């Protein structure tokens, strides 16, 4: 595992560029996920009939045990997934802004660009449109496309591979949550941990790490043209 050097990592083998959405394509200070978390907390309180602190504790356990809060709610409380996804993702995106440096970095990537998110289709659409990036991605593999099976479940990765014809050993996967990179690494993908935790988390299945995505993408080198 290594941070990018001045000239950037050489990723000439990559033809499939796969990106997580939230806190990866945009920085955490945009605070979108804080708003989503607030809505999840409110949903948990109602669905589980718990006080706020107990609901938050249970939500964290579901997230750890099942990959998403929704998976735990569906298993234990028979929650309607559509109602959950619609409610928790309907948040303000006022702090999200187009980033010309990010766009430039994405445009220079040779090959296909995909988004792989545990969020809903509608959420991904709203975020990409707000960031003026929707035209750069071939498709979004969202939680509905994954049959509500979230990362880091290997079945979600196999679903991505089948639907989009991704060749794992020719793919790079960018994520802000380290544990979601482990199944990608097991499949042979190049893994990149993004965000503040990239400076402190050092699991062996992370190939590269960067606090900020735009400078990393713009520093990449691709070797000789294929």
TrEMBL record:
<dbReference type="InterPro" id="IPR036412">
    <property type="entry name" value="HAD-like_sf"/>
</dbReference>
<dbReference type="InterPro" id="IPR023214">
    <property type="entry name" value="HAD_sf"/>
</dbReference>
<protein>
    <submittedName>
        <fullName>Pyrimidine 5'-nucleotidase</fullName>
    </submittedName>
</protein>
<dbReference type="Pfam" id="PF00702">
    <property type="entry name" value="Hydrolase"/>
</dbReference>
<dbReference type="InterPro" id="IPR010237">
    <property type="entry name" value="Pyr-5-nucltdase"/>
</dbReference>
<dbReference type="InterPro" id="IPR006439">
    <property type="entry name" value="HAD-SF_hydro_IA"/>
</dbReference>
């Amino acid at each position: 595992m290594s941070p990018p050097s001045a000239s950037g990592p050489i990723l000439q083998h990559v033809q499939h560029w796969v990106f997580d959405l939230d806190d990866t394509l945009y920085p955490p200070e945009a605070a979108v996920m804080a708003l989503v978390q607030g809505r999840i907390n409110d949903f948990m309180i109602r669905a589980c009939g718990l006080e706020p602190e107990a609901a938050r504790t249970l939500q964290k356990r579901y997230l750890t045990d099942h990959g998403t809060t929704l998976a735990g709610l569906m298993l234990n409380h028979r929650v309607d997934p559509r109602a959950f996804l619609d409610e928790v993702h309907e948040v303000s995106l006022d702090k999200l802004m187009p980033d010309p440096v990010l766009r430039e970095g994405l445009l220079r990537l040779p090959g296909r660009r995909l988004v792989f998110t545990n969020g809903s289709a509608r959420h991904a659409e709203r975020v990409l449109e707000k960031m003026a990036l929707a035209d750069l991605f071939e498709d979004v593999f969202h939680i509905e496309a994954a049959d509500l099976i979230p990362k880091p479940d290997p079945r979600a990765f196999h679903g991505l591979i089948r639907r989009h014809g991704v060749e794992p050993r020719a793919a790079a996967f960018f994520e802000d949550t380290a544990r979601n990179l482990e199944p990608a690494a097991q499949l042979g993908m190049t893994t990149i941990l993004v965000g503040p935790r990239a400076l402190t988390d050092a699991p062996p299945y992370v190939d590269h790490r960067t606090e900020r995505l735009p400078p990393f993408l713009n520093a990449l080198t691709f070797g000789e043209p294929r």
